[in-house]
Write a structure and sequence with these properties.
Helix content is 72%, strand content 9%. It is an alpha+beta fold. A 4-stranded antiparallel sheet has the order 2-1-3-4, with no helix packed on it.
Length: 193
Amino acid sequence: MYRYYDARGVLHVESVLPPGQAQSGYEVLDRRTLKTLAVITPAPSPQELAEQERRRRDAAAAQAAAQRSAQARQRDAAQQRYRDQMLLQTYASEAELIRLRNTKLETMALILRSVEQTVGHLRGNLAQMDATVVEHEAAGRVPPADLLEARARTAADLAEQERAAERIHNDQAAIRDTFESDLNRYRLLMGAR
């Protein structure tokens, strides 16, 4: 026996389910007691199917994102263990780490002084060339081509040396940051032993 509601909302109890009614949902009843044995829900509408698919995709995307995040955490933890191991194997003491940092920074400072001296010389040369160009122009003469070419090369060299000085300043800051981080981590690791 079947119990169902038709399209107008009228309740029916019949022994045969009409064609198409299976899509609208029904109940299977015991023939003698008319107790409900099973409830067959209506087939989902196209909108409901689309919503179910959207939810499934959203859940799959969230699960994939969570999995990627977990993998990234595992990878980061493995890298940290490797860095910790290297830190402990490389340095016998905190003083050794500080000594290496200071040596690197002193080396960078020497290089920077050399670059800054070069910058000073190039600026002086450029100023002399500019003065010579002004003298030629003031006398109504065209500055020689080799003077203009040398000035252009000097200006380009000066710009390159100034960029090099900036890179060295950035490298010094990065070395300080890296060693500060390594030193803090080393202290933490040694305190945990």
